[in-house]
Amino acid sequence: MQRVPRLTAGIAAVAIAAVGMTALEAQTRKPPYFASIAAAKARMRTGPGRNYPASWLYVRPDLPIKVVDIYRDWRKVEDPGGTQGWMQVGLLSDTRTAFVQNGVAPLRDSPSASARVVWRAAPGVVGRVSRCARGWCYIDVKGRGGFVEAASLWGVAPDEDLD
Fold first, then answer.
1. pLDDT tops 80 at residue 95
2. For the residues 26-54, what does the mean pLDDT come to?
3. Which residues form the SH3b domain (predicted)?
4. How far apart are CA 38 and CA 71, in angstroms?
5. Which domains does the chain have, with CATH numbers?
6. What pLDDT was estimated at residue 17?
7. Residue 84: is its pLDDT beyond 80?
8. Closest residue by Cα to residue 42 from 25, 22, 28, 63
9. pTM, whole model, 2 decimals?
């Protein structure tokens, strides 16, 4: 009967170590870089601490953000509208997402302007980005995916290669 608590403690230690490595990796990443909001509700603050007032409340998980500065476990971020403020790192995710900007974006079946349009995404639609190359990104919007020109998206650099 004593093996179960020891096994449980061992599993917990491995899980804590894995989480610690992820947090450590996140702390050493150099800005600027794109990420996304992970939490269902995320407050943007005027400074890096809970004692600073909240300036925005985001209720849109997966919204892409750009991390522009780091202070301990806080990230200074910029949203697609250009608003900047601070968010606690636990509210963010490394999951890459993109925000459709500048009009309706056709989602195509291959990365080419002459490829067949399979879906259309309205401005403001957010999709998960799985890969980008040569100015095209594959995004998935709730199970509906296709290739979009990177210039139509906020959350990826126009010349970014992402695998």
1. yes
2. 92
3. 32-96
4. 19
5. 33-94 (2.30.30.40), 98-154 (2.30.30.40)
6. 39
7. yes
8. 63
9. 0.81
Provide, rounded to the nearest whole percent, the portion of the chain with pLDDT above 70: 83
Instruction: Compute the average pLDDT of residues 92-102.
Output: 96
Q: What is the chain's mean pLDDT, rounded?
A: 87
Q: Helix, strand, or coil here: 8?
A: helix
- The amino acid occupying position 135 is G
For strand 117-121 and strand 144-149, is the pairing parallel, antiparallel, or unpaired? unpaired
Q: Residue 139 has what DSSP assignment?
A: E
Backbone angles phi, psi at 26, to 5 degrees: -65, -35
Cβ neighbours of residue 39 under 8 Å, at least 6 residues apart?
A: 58, 61, 90, 91
Q: How far is CA 156 from the centre of its chain?
A: 10
Q: Are 65 and 37 within 8 A, CB to CB? A: yes
Q: Where would I find the H helices in the chain? A: 3-28
Q: Is 156 helix (H, G, I), strand (E, B) or coil?
A: coil
Element (H, E) at 111: none
